[in-house]
Every structure is written in C-alpha cells, then in structure tokens.
TrEMBL record:
<dbReference type="GO" id="GO:0005739">
    <property type="term" value="C:mitochondrion"/>
</dbReference>
<keyword id="KW-0479">Metal-binding</keyword>
<dbReference type="GO" id="GO:0046872">
    <property type="term" value="F:metal ion binding"/>
</dbReference>
<feature type="binding site">
    <location>
        <position position="66"/>
    </location>
    <ligand>
        <name>a divalent metal cation</name>
    </ligand>
</feature>
<feature type="binding site">
    <location>
        <position position="104"/>
    </location>
    <ligand>
        <name>a divalent metal cation</name>
    </ligand>
</feature>
<feature type="binding site">
    <location>
        <position position="169"/>
    </location>
    <ligand>
        <name>a divalent metal cation</name>
    </ligand>
</feature>
<comment type="similarity">
    <text>Belongs to the GTP cyclohydrolase I type 2/NIF3 family.</text>
</comment>
<dbReference type="InterPro" id="IPR036069">
    <property type="entry name" value="DUF34/NIF3_sf"/>
</dbReference>
<protein>
    <recommendedName>
        <fullName>NIF3-like protein 1</fullName>
    </recommendedName>
</protein>
<feature type="binding site">
    <location>
        <position position="173"/>
    </location>
    <ligand>
        <name>a divalent metal cation</name>
    </ligand>
</feature>
<dbReference type="InterPro" id="IPR002678">
    <property type="entry name" value="DUF34/NIF3"/>
</dbReference>
<dbReference type="Pfam" id="PF01784">
    <property type="entry name" value="DUF34_NIF3"/>
</dbReference>
C-alpha cells in the first residue's frame, strides 16, 4: 500500500482535525517517495527499544499513539534519544505516524475501550485516557477513571463524593492497541500486515 494512500486512510479513520490544538499528530517522519507500506507497526510509546523491534520486524510505518516528536527538534544528530529515533527511522525507511488525541475523540477510540473495564454499577462515569486532571475537573460524575491526576485534584474529587481510579498514564492507553489492530485491519481491508509491539511497556517499573 502506498504511504500516501495509507496516511489518507488513517486520517479517514480518525481525522487529525479532532486532535487538540496543542498536539502534534499525523505523519511526522516520511521516507523519500515512493514508499510502500507492507507492515504497519503499532505502539503506545516509540522508545529506542521499540524502534529496534520495528526494524527487526521490517516495519514500513510505525503508528505511535504518543507523538515521539512533540517539542520541535532543532537538529537531528545522535545526541538525544528522540533525534536517534528519527535517524534510525530514515536509515531504515520507516515512516512515523501519530494520532494521539484524535484517537481520544473518536467514538470507537481509546476512551470507549476504557469503558469496557467497568463492571460494577456506576450511574455516571467520566473517563479520560492519559492525564485527566484538566479535562475531568468540575465534571459531575460518580467515578473518575484516568491515568493520572494531581494530588489536590484527587482530594477535590473525593471531597465532592466522586470515586477516583488512577491507572498510571500509559496503562489507560496501551491496551487499546490490540483493538485498534483489528479495527484498522477492517478499515484497510486487510491490504497490509498490522502488528503490535511486544517491547512497548510502561516506563515506570515496580521494584
């Protein structure tokens, strides 16, 4: 599948226009054309370890939920890990695409996946993948389910009779990748191979 054709299909699946204004979404790294994508590689965070996995699995495009390029890069050298990601991607002709908050906004996106984890009766739940403090603050609900909130925002919520479940930032997002793989396979009519990273994991480890 041609890269431009695939990017257009990904944009149809979740329009970048739905992303927050501060976000950096869409095609972030593009190898020189023409570029054919046979294997689409899904990850929540594109770390150096995950990039090496993508290289080994001969990925042609990495879809990273979190944009690896968020603050502008002034140079592309071997000095920082994010610069090295770009170097490795271009050396191996791997594109990088990020949907981030566009996937939070769509009805079949990350927050919809989060609701599937609720089993006990809750009349009104407010959910936000990732960091939910600013989004959930002031929302009337019985339960807040998100990745992280400030301590004071948690205190405010509890004082107002709201239960709070914090799952750590990326734990509210990473599990969506398997569901995304199946949804994209249907959306792309099984024209390409889609795999989920096995190396992608929460950066915080319990000792």
């Amino acid at each position: 599948m041609n890269l431009r054709e695939l990017v257009s299909a990904l944009n149809d699946f979740a329009s970048p226009a739905l992303a927050e204004s501060w976000d950096n979404v869409g095609l972030l790294v593009e190898p020189s054309p023409p570029h054919t994508v046979n294997t689409l590689f899904l990850t929540n965070d594109l770390t150096e370890e995950v990039m090496e996995e993508a290289v080994q699995k001969k990925a042609d495009l990495v879809l990273s939920y979190h944009p690896p390029i968020f603050t502008p890069l002034k140079r592309v050298t071997w000095k920082t890990w994010k610069e090295r990601l770009v170097v490795r991607a271009l050396e191996n002709r791997i594109g990088i695409y990020s949907p981030h908050t566009a996937y939070d906004a769509i009805p079949h996106g990350v927050n919809n996946w989060l609701t599937k984890g609720l089993e006990s009766p809750v009349k009104k739940a407010a959910l936000c993948a990732g960091s939910g403090s600013s989004v959930l603050k002031g929302t009337e609900a019985d339960l807040y389910l998100t990745g992280e909130m400030s301590h004071h925002d948690v205190l405010d919520a509890v004082a107002n009779g709201i239960s709070v479940i914090l799952c750590e930032h990326s734990n509210t997002e990473r599990g969506f990748l398997s569901e995304l793989r199946d949804a994209l396979a249907v959306h792309l009519q099984n024209k390409i191979n889609i795999i989920v990273s096995e190396k992608d994991r929460d950066p915080l480890q319990v000792a």
